[in-house]
Amino acid sequence: MKSIIIFGGSGYVGKNLIRRFAKEGFKVIVPYQKQINEANLRLLGSFGQIVPFHFSSLKNTKLLTLFNNVDICINLKTSWSSNKSELKRSILDFNSELINELKRSTSIKRFIFFSGLGTENRSTFRNEIISKTEDQILNKLQNSVVIRPSVIF
Prior knowledge:
Blueprint: E1 3-7, H1 12-23, E2 27-32, H2 38-42, E3 50-54, H3 61-67, E4 72-75, H4 84-104, E5 110-114, H5 125-140, E6 144-147
Parallel strand pairs: 1-2, 1-4, 2-3, 4-5, 5-6
Helix pairs in contact: 4-5
């Protein structure tokens, strides 16, 4: 069974992706930092197919082990904070650390980052942070994809 790890998987887009991947037979691991409803996530697939996983740091040894047992990593994790240091920490710094860990992985074949439209304009601090994150991903990781979805209903 192929495995996929989805950061930010407890949100709207994540739940729909989990449902789809579960139908395709993937085992889906959903790491989270803030409290979520694990039971609701588990119901999106068959018994044992969806695995919510609490972590506090990307240095978590169980999480690092998971990186060597998954085929695809998707990052949907975003922040809408207006605090500049929070944005930098939760988007740029998190993805920088994630990139370093993924480069060590022997099994991940694809990394997908969900970004946003208009980030290339760099008109706001948030767009500038996301643009720097995209540049890092595309320059440091082979087989990486940046998706810029529009407004999603």
